[in-house]
Amino acid sequence: MAVRPDNRIVPARPGETLLEALLRDEVPIPYDCRSGGCGKCKCTVAYGQVELGPYQREALSVDERAAGKVLACIATPLSDVEVEYVPLVPPGGFRPRAWRAKVAAMAKAADDVMIVHLAVEGDEPLSYYAGQYIDIVLPDGARRSFSFASAPGDGRTIGLQIRRIPGGRYTTHVFESMKVGDTVDFEGPLGSFFLRESDKPILFVAGATGFAPVKSMVEHAFATGMKREMLLYWGTRTLGDMYARELCERWAREHANFSFVPVLSDPRPDDAWTGRTGLVHEAILADYPSLAGHQVYACGSTAMVEAAHPAFRSHGMDPNDCFSDAFRLAPHRPRVLDDGDLVRLGGA
């Protein structure tokens, strides 16, 4: 199952409830009675099907059921599901709040990737962990999620990498209508995708604009003098889609503890590509018969993370050492798990 706001993938075992799966994976969902009586584990199933066991009607009203809410303790998934809950404590400790910003700068990094810098307004600086994300709030209340592509700084300017989704409402606006000086409302910081304390070497796996939070984390690691070994595998379809390849190559030249492996899934003939090809997570599996002793940070589409997570576990990765940021392409859009989805990321 996909879990929000953590943006994690949590495997559910046959016959277990949502709550059992979430607690086994240490997701901080509130709960108490575990029998459908208190209502504390109430959450929303954004898509997918669940089977409900007996519960007290006072804990879950008819209107709430119609809105997609369930009690995690008595809900058993019947398909892939996406679950949204309200954590007792925000991931990382930074409590999300509403912000307003002005577009300070815009630049195309590729035909379908726009780099946007926002100047945050207000008296308070925006504090966040490298790797977290924000929800841009549209005038009608709809939300689109984008990761910080900049390391935490003075809290006054943040960077985003926005990929254009064909027909996407917000990304079309960014590419066709947005201009410097425009106002942007957003909420954040959100998500639990940030570096954990450890001495273990780090493997980053990024699909398409899943590079954005990795950039945030890597630049933060450089700025703080972190000496852990870091290796980035970045997968895109073509060479032109790898819009920051030169930056990654410069990191590798300038920092002895950083290495970079680009992977193309569908290189064009004019790419003249002689490097790695295929799915990005499979390149890691080929290079690491054992992932024991590594921390893995995977960011890409839900499909990419869902494919990578069990594959990494089969190569000895400790589940407690895998952290993921799995974004859907648009809110509540059903997923089709084809090879193309394994390198897509972005809001619509």
Overall description:
- This protein is 18% helix and 30% strand.
- The chain folds into 3 domains: 2-84, Ubiquitin-like (UB roll), CATH 3.10.20.30; 94-190, Translation factors (Elongation Factor Tu (Ef-tu), domain 3); 202-343, 3-Layer(aba) Sandwich (Rossmann fold), CATH 3.40.50.80.
- The protein has helices at 18-24, 62-66, 169-176, 211-223, 245-254, 280-287, 302-314, and strands spanning 2-4, 8-9, 42-47, 50-52, 69-71, 75-77, 82-84, 97-110, 113-120, 133-137, 143-147, 157-163, 183-190, 202-207, 230-236, 258-264, 276-277, 295-301, 322-327.
- By secondary structure, the protein is an alpha/beta fold.
- A hairpin with a 3-residue loop joins strand 1 (2-4) and strand 2 (8-9).
- The model is unreliable at 329-348 (pLDDT under 50).
- The protein is built from 7 helices and 19 strands.
Number of strands: 19
Cross-sheet strand order for the largest sheet: 11-10-13-8-9-12
Category from helices, strands and their pairing: alpha/beta
CATH topology of the largest domain: Rossmann fold
Look at the structure and give the mean pLDDT: 88
Spatial gap, N to C terminus: 21 Å
Radius of gyration: 20 Å
CATH superfamily caption of the largest domain = Nucleotide-binding domain of ferredoxin-NADP reductase (FNR) module
**Major β-sheet profile:** 6 strands, antiparallel
Can you name the CATH architecture of the largest domain?
Answer: 3-Layer(aba) Sandwich
Please, how many helices? 7
Percentage of residues in DSSP E strands: 25-35%
Helix content: 10-25%
